[in-house]
Amino acid sequence: MASSPSTSPVPQHRPNTAFRALRGHLSPGEFAANVRRSAREIGEQVSCDARYIGRVESGEIRCPNYAYERVFLHMFPGYSLTDMGFAPRESVRGRAARARGARGDGQAPRQSPARSDDPALPQLPPFTIHPDSTGLTEFPNCPEYDEESDVLRRAFMTGGPAALATASLSGAAPSAWAAHPAPPTAPGHAHVGATEAGAVENAVRRIRLLDDRHGGAGLYRQATGSLRAAYELLDTGAHRQAVTDRLHAGAGELAISVGWLAHDSGRYGDARSHYAEALATARVAQDPALEAHAFCNTAFLARDAGRPREAVRAAQAGQHAAKHLGSHHLLSLLALREAGGWAGLGDRAGCRQALARAQQLFAKGPCDNDPEWMSFFGEAELEGLEAQCWSALGMWDRAADHAERAVQLQDPHFTRNRALFTAELAGDLAAQGEPEAAAAAGSRALDFLGPVQSTRISAMLRAAADRLRSCRGAPGVAAFLSRQAATA
After folding, report:
1. Dihedrals φ, ψ of 286, to 5°?
2. Which of 83, 174, 203, 395 has the fewest other C-beta atoms within 10 Å?
3. Across the strands, what pairs with 238?
């Protein structure tokens, strides 16, 4: 990845020739496509592109994260990470850093980010998570809070990945950002390059990773500073059109990600504003992929906020924007958003037609044109969104059937979605008149409300509890009601 001009020494990386040999005659882009296909074969989600392959081969990535490790081992049976040219994990992060901290020598874990040394650039504040305020600590009741989640949490607690912030790239501390925000930059007096564009893009990826595991309630406020600074970078401008295009797309995707954190936290007004900002950015940049994404999330928000007709219109506008993008799964998701709007209007025929269209498009399968942000969209999501449609129409038996399938199909890595679909199942079973099964599902969902902080999921469990109060004598109901009340 290119960086801004700098007179400071840059870290020297040893090229990973072993990994380069594994790529063979394929281009970095073609090899990245193979990585994404292999990930889908084993139910993994990785956002691999040519830039990532270049960082590996240059030696900048000394050891892949756990998701990439699983994919690479699947692609090259019989090879170990060291056979592929990677360094042992303990030599890169984790044990050595913890040992230094345990000795009390005050040394922070070494970071080797790309650098941006232009002092005139706006700074993206490091995205730090504090376990005492967000609950991102250890939760023995939730088996999905695994080693990979813990690695992500530690990365944020120790200052966040460099890609999340230009401030991190230049070594600025979080306290410095809070006390002395970057001054406005006069046009033409700073150089925004590929390093800054990459910082914004990776901010989006990291926010999505943590949201998949923990929900939006504990992440929203930390992410808004990064969004503000991303737009400052965009206002500063870049000399190359390719970088400007990346900044527009990255800032727009970051606005959607932050908007989703607000949405999941019940801050509907903030979410609406962020989605509108993303849509405006898409229109300015003439970016139909970003426009489709913004309309997709706007439709989802409108449904949750009780504006079903707006949900239908936004979903249809998203389908119009996406029609030439070559992604059947994106069109499937937008059809599901439309179905949710029709369900909210009580229009069974419109809902059924949109659901049928979504299923037909989904059946065409994933492809390389599917947007990176759609890594969550699989069969479990399809079932879960259909369950929500039937629930809105009051067809509780069908809703419960689809919700149960969503729970069974959901990949364990998407902890927040497992909590969501289990809470949906609890509510559907309670409305269906199955109090014992509803209480059991509700109790399982409560097990997630340590690592997962989602106002939306909490509200769903509260609604399920309200339906079960008259059935307190049924087995398990009283215990669930007591736990739910304590959690609330």
Report:
1. 50, 55
2. 83
3. 192
% helix / strand / coil in the chain, to the nearest 5?
65, 0, 35
Residues 81 and 139 in one domain: no
Total Cβ atoms within 10 A of residue 337:
28
Query: Against a cut of 0.90, is the pTM above it?
Result: no
Which of 411, 412, 466 shows the shortest CA–CA distance to 438?
466
CB 439 within 8 A of CB 432: no
Q: Which residues contact 117 (CB under 8 A, 6 or more apart)?
A: 4, 6, 7, 8, 170
* pLDDT of the chain, 488 residues: tens digit per residue: 343 333 334 445 789 999 998 998 888 888 988 898 888 888 777 778 888 898 899 888 888 887 888 899 989 988 888 899 998 866 654 433 333 334 344 333 333 333 344 444 444 444 433 333 333 223 333 333 333 333 333 333 333 322 333 333 222 333 333 333 333 344 444 567 777 778 777 777 777 777 656 555 567 777 777 788 778 777 777 778 888 888 888 888 989 989 988 888 888 999 999 999 999 999 999 999 999 999 999 999 999 999 999 999 999 999 999 999 999 999 999 999 999 999 999 999 999 999 999 999 999 998 889 998 888 898 999 999 999 999 999 999 999 999 999 999 987 777 778 889 999 999 999 999 999 999 999 999 888 876 666 778 888 999 999 999 988 888 889 999 998 888 77
Of 259, 286, 313, the residue that ends a domain is 286
Domain of residue 251, residue span: 120-286
Nearest to 251 by CA among 217, 285, 220: 285
Residue 422 lies in a domain: no
The two tokens of residue 275 are: 């989605």
Is 279:298 a contact under the CB 8 Å cutoff? yes
Residue 261 identity (one-letter amino acid): L
**Which whole-number Å values give the CA distances from 112 to 109, 138, 152, 163, 289, in the listed order?**
10, 28, 17, 11, 33
